[in-house]
User: What shape does this take?
Amino acid sequence: DGGITQSPKYLFRKEGQNVTLSCEQNLNHDAMYWYRQDPGQGLRLIYYSQIVNDFQKGDIAEGYSVSREKKESFPLTVTSAQKNPTAFYLCASSISAVSYEQYFGPGTRLTVT
Amino acid sequence: DQQVKQNSPSLSVQEGRISILNCDYTNSMFDYFLWYKKYPAEGPTFLISISSIKDKNEDGRFTVFLNKSAKHLSLHIVPSQPGDSAVYFCAASPLRGNTPLVFGKGTRLSVIA
Assistant: This one.
C-alpha cells in the first residue's frame, strides 16, 4: 500500500533531550512537509523540502531541524531549543512542489515533560 | 497575519440538516482552494477542492462554493451525518510557484444524532 508512515504514534521525552520524528513515504513524491498542530492553532508549517538535499524553513522553524538525504525520508528533530515541543506533529507529501494536493501521515503525538 | 481565516472554531448541526463551514482569505494570489477533514489523533484527509476559475464544485454530499470578489469560500455538507463530526481545515495555494499550502485554523463540526 502506498502512503506516508510516521513512527512512533506516541513519543515521550524529558525536557532538554533532542528527539527525532520519523516520516517515510513510498508515493514517489518529490515534496515533503512537516506541520505542527496545537489546539486552536490549526496546522503550522515547520519545514518543507521540494527535492532531495534541499529544504526551506516554514513559519515556525525555530528549535527544529530536518534533513532530506533520501526522497522517501524526511526526519524532523525537535531540539532542546524548542520552547514548547509538546504537540501533534504531522508529515505530508505532494507529487511536486507545484502540486496543490498534500497527503498526510497519521501523525506523532510528542509529549515532553 | 492570517491569510486564511476560519472564524468559527466550532459548529453543531442536527443529523440530516445542512452544515455550512466558512473560510475567508486575504491573498488575491490564491488560485486553488482545498478542504481537509481531520479526526482526532489522525492526519487530515483531502475532501474537496476548487479552482479559482470555477465558483462551485460538487462531490456527493459535499459542495464547495467560491466567491472570488468577496474572497470567501464555503463547504456545504448535506445531509449531515454523525460520521461527518471532525475538524475541517480550509487551505489555499498561491499561483503555481512552489509555495506550500496555507491552512486556516479549522472548524470543529459536531453532527448530533
